[in-house]
Design goal:
The protein folds into two domains: 6-61 and 322-420, Aspartate Aminotransferase, domain 1; 76-317, Type I PLP-dependent aspartate aminotransferase-like (Major domain) (Aspartate Aminotransferase, domain 2, 3-Layer(aba) Sandwich). It contains twelve helices and 16 strands. The chain has 422 residues and is α/β, with parallel strands linked by helices. It is 35% helix and 17% strand. The mean pLDDT is 96. The protein binds pyridoxal-5'-phosphate (PLP). Pyridoxal-5'-phosphate (PLP) binds next to helix 5.
């Protein structure tokens, strides 16, 4: 009897994330990744235009990173991190503290973007609790996304993602996306009840690639800082040159007290989350009283393979070749976004660093019926891109070749032609 195909076996046993399993098309069986390309079982290649959920910065199958992970696996693949330590975790912490903008002094490891924001929220809440100060409220931005766990859902926008869980989410005060010159919407005398403000700096990713300016954010951050509110920058998506600089917070005058990293941290190879904080926060947990301990830890905290991958990926990212690739993508995107303005079917063409985004036909709408058509259209052009409703965006691995980049742009222009004639 012939062995079942991968698709048949998948259909029997797998539940895919963020997927309506009844109606969505079957997944594509992928057997290999190389550079900006993913290959299916027939050897057909697809350009990974949004870097596999925004994680892949260095390209698939980077030989240096693969070698380092393999060597580390032979040496020490994992050990508990509560009572042990190891070189990859310490070295990565040292390296990140050297590179992060602001005054960070401690690195707390976890597993992914959601856990990095959960940790940040718990850290901020317990920071005040440990000092016996009643500051319990949390600020967040309207339209934000910080992950799928309960704390992360609480501070994110309420949407189809969160509707079934609404009764289980804690209350948050939402601020609008700041506009230049806009007054801070909460009276200053009310601010002393807030523990923290969590925000995605300069661009809200899953919320629809909504971009806003550092000049608008800074004055609001300054007001919150004056009132002691801890500033949590969620750089899970923006980190590692997505906005053109290593971290989006580099564009800000007001530096955060806590920063969350994941996705591009390991270049797209292994899951890892980081929550960095200032010494002031760390010190609020130091006590003879055990109850002031930060009782949070995941089994795979500081996994040596993931830390090694992150170190190797940083080396690649900081290399002159990748630095010039990043600049090249930024320049090409600038030109592309300029061209998009000529097509009436594309709304709000915009760019921030290596991210280009626009809406198709309408105002942004996550449940737009256009979504599936757009996905299929790009797939036919051998471009893998998962639209956010009718919002399209390009966020490729930095090793993408000029030819591949032009292929993605060409697919977009072909889309405009198709829309014009339908
Ligand atoms: C800004 C931001 N924070 C947190 C997350 C959650 O990360 P993860 O999917 O790794 O849990 C995401 C994921 O898209 C994100 O964009």
């Amino acid at each position: 009897m012939p062995a079942s195909s991968l698709l048949e076996r998948d259909a029997r046993v797998i539940w895919h994330p963020d997927t309506q399993m009844l109606t969505e098309p079957a997944p594509i069986p992928i057997v290999k990744g190389e550079g900006a390309l993913l290959f299916d079982e027939q050897g057909q290649s697809y350009i990974d235009a949004d870097a596999s959920w925004w994680v892949n910065t260095i390209g698939h199958g980077h030989p240096l990173v693969a070698e380092k992970i393999a060597a580390q696996a032979r040496h020490l693949a994992h050990c508990i991190f509560a009572c042990l330590t190891h070189e990859p975790a310490v070295k990565l912490a040292e390296e990140l503290l050297r590179l992060l903008p602001g005054n960070f002094s401690r690195i707390f490891y976890s597993d992914d973007g959601s856990t990095s924001t959960e940790v940040a929220l718990k850290m901020a809440i317990q920071y005040w609790h440990n000092q016996g100060i009643k500051r319990t409220k949390i600020l967040a931005l309207e339209g934000g996304y910080h992950g799928d766990t309960f704390g992360a859902m609480s501070v994110g926008a309420k949407s189809v993602f969160t509707a079934p869980f609404e009764n289980y989410l804690f209350e948050v005060t939402y601020l609008p996306l700041p506009q230049p010159g806009q007054a801070f919407p909460i009276p200053e005398e009310e601010l002393d009840q807030y523990a923290a403000w969590i925000f995605e700096p300069l661009i809200q990713g899953a919320g629809g690639m909504r971009m806003y300016r550092a000049e608008a954010l800074d004055p609001w951050l300054e007001i919150c800082r004056r009132h002691g509110i801890l500033l949590i920058a969620d750089e899970v998506m923006t980190g590692f040159y997505r906005t053109g600089r290593l971290f989006a917070c580099e564009y800000l005058q007001q530096k955060p007290d806590i920063i969350c990293l994941s996705k591009g941290l390991t270049g797209g190879t292994l899951p890892l989350g980081v929550t960095a904080c200032t010494e002031q926060i760390f010190e609020a947990f130091l006590s003879q009283d055990k109850r002031k301990t930060f009782f949070h830890g995941h089994s795979y905290t500081a996994n040596p393979l993931a830390c090694t991958a992150a170190l190797a990926s940083l080396d690649v990212l900081l290399s002159p070749a990748y630095q010039s690739q990043i600049q090249h993508i930024i320049r090409q995107h600038q030109h592309f976004v300029q061209q998009l303005h000529e097509y009436p079917c594309f709304q709000h063409p915009r760019q921030l660093g290596t991210i280009a985004a626009f809406e198709v036909i309408d105002e942004p709408n996550y449940t737009s019926p256009l979504r599936d058509k757009l996905y299929t259209f790009y797939l036919k052009h051998r471009v893998l891109m998962r639209p956010l409703g009718n919002t399209l965006y390009l966020m490729p691995p930095y090793c993408i070749t000029n030819e591949q980049l032009q292929q993605v742009y060409e697919a977009t222009f072909a889309l405009a032609e198709t829309l014009l004639h339908n």
